[in-house]
Predict the 3D structure of the following.
Amino acid sequence: MEKCVIEAAAGRKKAQLVFKNAHVVNVFTKQVEQADVAVEAGVIAGVGQYSGQEEIDCTGLYLCPGFVDAHIHVESTMAVPYEFARAVAPSGTTSVVADPHEIVNVCGAPAVEWLLKASEALPVDIYWMIPSSVPATPFETNGAPFTAEDMAPFAQIGPRVAGLGEVMCYTDVVAGTGEIYDKLALFEHKHIDGHAPGLCGKALAAYAAAGIETEHECTTFAEAKEKLAAGMAILVREGSAAKNLTAIVQGLLKEGLPTDRFLFCTDDKHLDDIAREGHIRWNVHQAVQLGGGCCLHGEFQRRTGIRPEGGRGHCAGLQSGHCAFGRLEAGACTRRIQGRRSCGAAHCRRAARARAGCTRPHHAFCPRHAAAAGAAGSGTSARH
């Protein structure tokens, strides 16, 4: 940690940037507190009372960790990573965990190499899960092979390669057969995502025993509860095609289960839906409308965080030394943000990520440049 961060945190120097008088969503205490957030050298120096070289008045606004999509196929948006980032950043998404199954099914290993290059230095961090089931079934005729040997070099990459993508051949896993076991062994030191709709009983126990950690295919709360009991983390999906959030969140609220093993994801969400609803902010909005409140959203968000080494489930909150947070509007917004009027919905979120001193071509996301263009509004967010 740089010494200047310590000096700013202690109040011995003015921080480079301070968000003043915000309603800070504390995902550790599950409370909302009014405070300043000081940013120094690209990280949060402290939360409390601070003065800064630059100050942004957040009176009446909420400050919370940036949103993370725990499972998505970027190709389903029909956009390259850069355009995908441009689409999701304005609604507060700062990171996604992506499984490029579709493009690898067509192009094989070169597709992964291209995606790693195409997703560098974007306004949204993309962590890649290496597709496990290409093709998805032995009956498919796909564009290129992607064997355990093909994926071995990617298993050694970190932190942007977070693990093995959704294991769709769950029948092979349960039966103890097939090449999938070579793939599981390659990624035993990383995360492994699941895909086993309807799996239950001893078959589910076998699937979880193979080291598979998550499930995004739950369509009912009963299924989610059984897989939770088996030790899996549940990715609550609400996208363009599958919409499972209402059933699962209602069950959670009814039974009062802890939410520390539940994460938000979209799986597949089209650009027109993102433009109309926002990205993960829509999942948060839906959960709040169901009665979850910001504490539910905060706990979901905390568990969806990305560790510096690329892990999932770290406590990603507004605390000293952390670098990710998004600035959200409280209530209806009537100011113009980047030249557009917000939707005015009660839980409308307009947020965009920026890096300190942003000079890249996508600097439209940076509030400093937006302000210079006369487009900065109270809904703009920053990620430093």
